[in-house]
Amino acid sequence: METGNYIPDRDDDIDGYEKIDRYNNDLIKSLSGHYYEVLKQIGEHPEREGLLKTPERVAKAMLYLTHGYDLNAQQILKSAMFKEEYSQMVVVKDIEVYSMCEHHMLPFFGKAHVAYIPNGYVVGLSKIPRIVDVYGRRLQVQERLTNEIRDCIQETLNPVGVGVVIECRHLCMSMRGVQKQNSVTTTSAFTGEFLKEKTRTEFLNLISSKLS
Ligand SMILES: Nc1nc2c(ncn2[C@@H]2O[C@H](COP(=O)(O)OP(=O)(O)OP(=O)(O)O)[C@@H](O)[C@H]2O)c(=O)[nH]1
Ligand SMILES: [Zn+2]
């Protein structure tokens, strides 16, 4: 369902964009109704003053947190590809990741490090964090998020290779369930030159990351 091209910067931005399917008033109203029921069923009183606008706020927030479904990552990359004879590794590191696990719909968050070796074309640097968001702002597992970013860059830009490393903390593992507050999950995905140890080591050295 990758249709739209509007990228809201904040969930407030939803106001005034009724023309975009995802943020239409009917959908916000319908979702709000469901969240009203959720509030009741968890033992709250949705009519108390502090909660009066909560169902609508949550509905808008949830639409924002999943707006990646409306975006087309390949289109975003294609919109800023430039012919350039640069053939060394390009690394964009420490890109903030915010996503939600598809099992509990709880956040996972951390950093992504993305690299590629151009093959005649480079891509506008900002587009790399943008595609991290396109796939991150959906219900995800960290492994699929990692692979989707890799595949999108490989298929669109056709570089000599792509490397993606993501490190995240999962709230479903810290505030509930196994309750491990300090565990960090690292995933990686590579293509082409990055499958060779020398290139992968160069990439891993360049990011030498520390999520504190
Ligand atoms: N592989 C993977 N697993 C994830 C991710 N996010 C959450 N999970 C896991 O998904 C699993 C779901 O397991 P279930 O046993 O069905 O769910 P649960 O009973 O709530 O599991 P606990 O979290 O262990 O209480 C858990 O082990 C989560 O830690 C992710 O991005 N990747
Ligand atoms: Zn989870």
UniProtKB/TrEMBL annotation:
This is GTP cyclohydrolase 1. Its EC number is 3.5.4.16. Belongs to the GTP cyclohydrolase I family. Pathway: Cofactor biosynthesis; 7,8-dihydroneopterin triphosphate biosynthesis; 7,8-dihydroneopterin triphosphate from GTP: step 1/1. GO terms for biological process: one-carbon metabolic process; tetrahydrobiopterin biosynthetic process; tetrahydrofolate biosynthetic process. GO terms for molecular function: GTP binding; GTP cyclohydrolase I activity; zinc ion binding. It comes from the Bacteria. It comes from Mucilaginibacter hurinus. The gene is folE.
